[in-house]
Amino acid sequence: MNELLLSPPSRKPALSGDAALALLHDATEAIVVVNDKNDIIFFNTGAEKLWGYTQGEVLGHNVRMLVPDFVWHEHDGHVAHNRETDASTIIGISREIIFENKHGDYITGELTLSSSPVGPKGAKYYLASIKAVTEENHRKKLLDLQNTVFQSLSTEMQIQDVADLVCREVENFVPNTVAILVLIGEDHRLHVLSGPGLPRRYAGALENVTLSDADIMALSNDLDEAATVVWDSYKSLGVSLGLHHCWASAIKAGNGKISGIFALFSRNLNKTSDWPQKVVAGCVPFCSVLIEQYDARHHISQLANYDPLTGFLNRTAIHKVLKTLVGKPGDNHFAVLMLNLDRFRDINDALGHANGDDFLKAVAIRIKSLCRSHYILSRAGGDEFVIILPDTKAANATAFAETLIAGMEEPIEIGGNFLAASVSVGISMFPENGPDSESLIGHAEAAMRLAKKEARGTFRVATPEDHAAAQDRLVLGSALRESLAKGLLNLHYQPQIEAKTGELYGVEALSRWHHPHLGNIFPSRFIAVAEDTGQIEAIGAWCLEEACRQIVAWDRDGVMIPAVSVNLSAGHFRKRQLPEMISNLLTRFGIAPKRLTVEITESVMMDENKDTMDVLNAIRALDVGLSMDDFGTGYSSLSRLTRLPLTEIKIDRSFIMNLEHDANAQAVTTAVIGIGNRLGMTVVTEGVETEAQYELLESLHCDVMQGYLFAKPMAPKDLEAWFRQPRKIMPAMRKALGKKQAPGQPKSK
């Protein structure tokens, strides 16, 4: 040892070797000296206190006995590297270390290591000075961890990741341990939120635990009772997995609820100091905040992904599930079922929305009872539900649909009423019906709509033709929206001629669409797409404004068009703003109300809704005409007809096609003309193409005719040219006119 205390040859020692040794021996810090063979040759009083060994127990032994097992490989490697190269990151640097004392306690210390060549051969000796870390240092570590947790919670960092961070940091504080954070749910069931180092079998055992009310009360009274829950009952299992001790504390939320448990398990056979329990207790406050954040985010997730009424996934969440299923590798097949309740609106209207909600909840329970546990359930909105059947082929999906429809027929009691839940079901299959969630949901919905249209209370399976139609709607719908925004639609106008005089009665405005890439799109095609995509009302509003603008332009150019008829969808007449919109247009363009006629469909006629009737009456109050379009093609009610404020009826062209040869068509046409005349309405017949049809209709006293016999639909400029030319006059007209031409009109030919 005295060799270490020799001064360089050029200087005289300030102290004798014995005096220096005495100073080192009595120093409060632990001093350990190791020779070139890694044997301990000096161990002072401070070291005896720190490690709990006497000098006699350590001198002459390899220094490895003072180093914990889990850092042996690191320790030996660092020392060997320094001896061979003199390059080191361990010499002359103060750093914190963890070591194990004689009693098995892990102790933290601050190490400073120096080295010096000794003797003629320059053998390298090491002197280690270790200062025990105080309790204050431990508290600072916990405070730093707490700050890290709070900062992490204020970011977008996942709660799971924050919990893992806590467990790993605590395991660094107390080496050779396993930290876990356990949640206690509303049902008192345990859920391991984090335990990166916990053996899977032990975690599985804890996940099966459901606490009793007595257990919760015991934890509330004494937080340290947590060790009984997570350790005492599973000690044998823990020991078999290499766990030997446990420190635990229950976590109490701000509202007094026991929300979780934080625990620390030791792999050390010897019982350590009370430092682990202090670590656990120090972690409890910020673990409580962490769990509160977890609950809050979980609640937000519930609101974002689950339907509050039924507890099923909502529409957003079901798309996420479908995206995951579509992305699964291998030969993947599954079915998507879209359910819609038949006549649910009647239940709401008859029993009120509260009972309607109760009915939806009861339906959801019934659906769940008919489904297998791995089926995925969603309420897509309103009275629509989605069921996903994983790993299912079409035959099994249709069999389940039949079971579902039959199972829903048993009446459900709501508010003292027994109601049968009839459902219409659409089925789409992956991969047959699309590569993504939108396609699958869209095809299932289209199939469901078809079932409702053809036979309520049945199911339909989406077909490739449905897929093509859906693609057509998608492409045309997008193009139509763009064309409408850019003003690419236009109106053509077909003249309407008074049957007796040949004079111009008015024109009907008809939408036309020429797309720069898709070409001319037939009205029957794009109007259907507009109805399916919700653009029909925008087209109707545009038609009204464009017709008014054209009337003004014709007036300016001396083309006097008595009236323009504009078709509107049924949806327009459910909006109370429609009369005001029409009134504003008339005022804005300075047009007399009688020069505008609004055409309604029979679906509007059959709508008993008070709002619809109020809108129709308000339009007539403006003195704007109201025409019943395509009368006789639907389910018209004559009694309903008498209550509507109509000014004209239009007979559909389907009755005129075989009018000369079909007695039934003649009978219906005669009846409609007679009804219209008796009700004081103008009767307009569409599709008149031959003189024979004209003669027959005129003999039946039809008021106005429209068809290719007189003119086809024309662009505004073409209509202007037609207006200025002589018109076709039929014999009956010539007779009525007395062979005289009205003043200001073009000569007849």
From TrEMBL:
**Would you tell me the protein name for this molecule?**
C-di-GMP phosphodiesterase A
- Which part of the chain is the GGDEF domain? 332-464
Upper taxonomic classification of the species? Bacteria, Pseudomonadati, Pseudomonadota, Alphaproteobacteria, Acetobacterales
SMART domains, A to Z: EAL, GGDEF, PAS
**Do you know which Gene3D superfamilies this protein is assigned to?**
3.30.70.270, EAL domain, PAS domain
- PROSITE patterns xrefs: EAL, GGDEF, PAS
Q: Which InterPro entries match?
A: Biofilm_reg_signaling, Diguanyl_cyclase/Pdiesterase, EAL_dom, EAL_sf, GGDEF_dom, Nucleotide_cyclase, PAS, PAS-like_dom_sf
Q: Where is the PAS domain?
A: 23-69
Pfam families per UniProt: EAL (PF00563), GGDEF (PF00990), PAS_9 (PF13426)
- What organism is listed for this UniProt entry? Komagataeibacter diospyri
Q: Give every EAL domain span.
A: 473-727
Q: Which NCBIfam families match?
A: GGDEF, sensory_box
